[in-house]
Design goal:
Shape: elongated
Number of helices: 8
Order of helices and strands: HHHHHHHH
Low-confidence stretches: none
Radius of gyration: 19 Å
Helix content: over 70%
Distance between the termini: 14 Å
């Protein structure tokens, strides 16, 4: 039996899970939420959700699936990078798992919107929805600090691995720094809006394809 088989399976699983996340997360974050939620107009938000509640449910479900996929990715990346440094690989996995738990807790705020849409909507429906969405945002932004440490350690492991290109490790570290700056900025600076992570995510994107490539047994593999 090929000794690289477990590595390939873990790498391919993590890569495919990340690829699916790259579809589901933008669908919820950049289509569903902007389409239905207007933080400056509670009345319009309430009206949109009472008509398109199915779309909102699909967005919430997408977020929840992303959480499950995050757990799978944490496991896959741990196995892939365990040969480099087992302790650091485990630490990176734990940071991602903590992030996933906090992200799931934040999503629960969105699930509270669903009962409000059933039966007779309350008079202040829009205000309640905006409040819950803001709670979701705050929780997710705080969780991203843990995610940033996951990426920083992951980038270091990729850089030191010898079977992933060093530039990929550097780009993943840069992505982690983007999330870290945004996370701290959202906590310390009122009305923070820099959103640096939008411009530093390229390492995460390249990692998807590199994991799938390695999972197919291409390029240099760990000995």
């Amino acid at each position: 039996m090929n000794t690289n088989t477990p590595f390939r399976r873990a790498s391919l699983t993590a890569g495919l899970a990340l690829l699916l996340m790259a579809v589901l997360a933008p669908f919820a974050e950049f289509y569903v939420i902007p389409e239905l939620i207007d933080l400056a107009d509670p009345a319009a938000t309430a009206a949109a959700l009472t008509v398109e509640d199915g779309l909102f449910r699909a967005g919430v479900l997408s977020y929840l699936i992303v959480v499950v996929l995050d757990v799978i990715v944490a496991w896959g990346l741990y196995l892939v990078l365990k040969p480099v440094n087992s302790r650091l690989s485990l630490l990176a996995a734990w940071f991602r798992l903590v992030y996933s738990a906090l992200f799931a807790a934040a999503i629960l705020e969105l699930t509270k919107v669903l009962p409000l849409l059933e039966g007779t909507p309350p008079a202040n429906l829009g205000e309640e929805i905006i409040s819950l969405v803001n709670s979701f945002r705050i929780g997710w932004q705080a969780a991203l600090i843990f995610f940033s440490f996951h990426l920083l350690i992951l980038g270091l492991l990729l850089f030191r691995s010898g079977f992933f290109p060093r530039f990929l490790g550097i780009l993943v570290v840069i992505a982690g720094l983007g999330y870290l700056i945004d996370g701290i900025g959202n906590i310390l600076v009122p009305s923070y809006s820099a959103d640096i992570a939008v411009y530093t995510f390229i390492g995460e994107l390249l990692l998807i394809f590199w994991l799938i490539w390695k999972g197919l047994g291409k390029g240099r593999l760990p000995e």
